[in-house]
């Protein structure tokens, strides 16, 4: 008598609903976006802050009105967790700064600060300090080819104050790249 084992076939077939793929929300997915990208506002941190405070207050109420004699879940650890949630919520509320300066405004301020005509530039959002104040970090290159000067500027994301400026001659060596590029014909070689 010959038997076959069909368990391998069953395991290889996908189960409906088993193919979950984690995705970014539409407002954070820059790869599929065409046009100017709008950086998400930090004030969204206030939403989980309010939720943490409400959940912490609910847990604190359960601890306060609960009877530790009848429930093994009501004890000092519950009060500690509630206070931790409330403190975390308060931190989120104070760290939910309104991002008033977008990357275009920060680039304008950075261009003024470095004092040279800007060619290529790159902006990155960072947060500084315990209160997580939003700050734009901008790397700028002069408009020559290859760029002779570069600069780094930090611009506050709330009031557009220039925090740090660093300007230097570009230390990058472009000689190897320039020799590998095709040369344009000069006017003297055409005659």
What would the keywords be for this entry?
single chain, 4-stranded antiparallel sheet, Nuclear Transport Factor 2, Chain: A, elongated, 6 helices, alpha+beta, 191 residues
Q: Could you characterize what this model shows?
A:
- There is one protein chain.
- With 191 residues, the protein is an alpha+beta fold.
- It folds into two domains: 1-96, no CATH class; 103-176, Nuclear Transport Factor 2, Chain: A.
- Helix content is 36%, strand content 19%.
- It has six helices and four strands; from the N terminus they run H-H-H-H-E-E-E-E-H-H.
- The chain has helices at residues 7-12, 46-65, 76-95, 103-114, 175-180, 187-190; strands at 118-128, 133-142, 149-156, 162-169.
- The protein has a four-stranded antiparallel sheet with strand order 1-2-3-4, covered by helices on one side.
- A hairpin with a 4-residue loop joins strand 1 (118-128) and strand 2 (133-142).
- Helix 2 (46-65) packs antiparallel against helix 3.
- It is elongated.
- The mean pLDDT is 83.
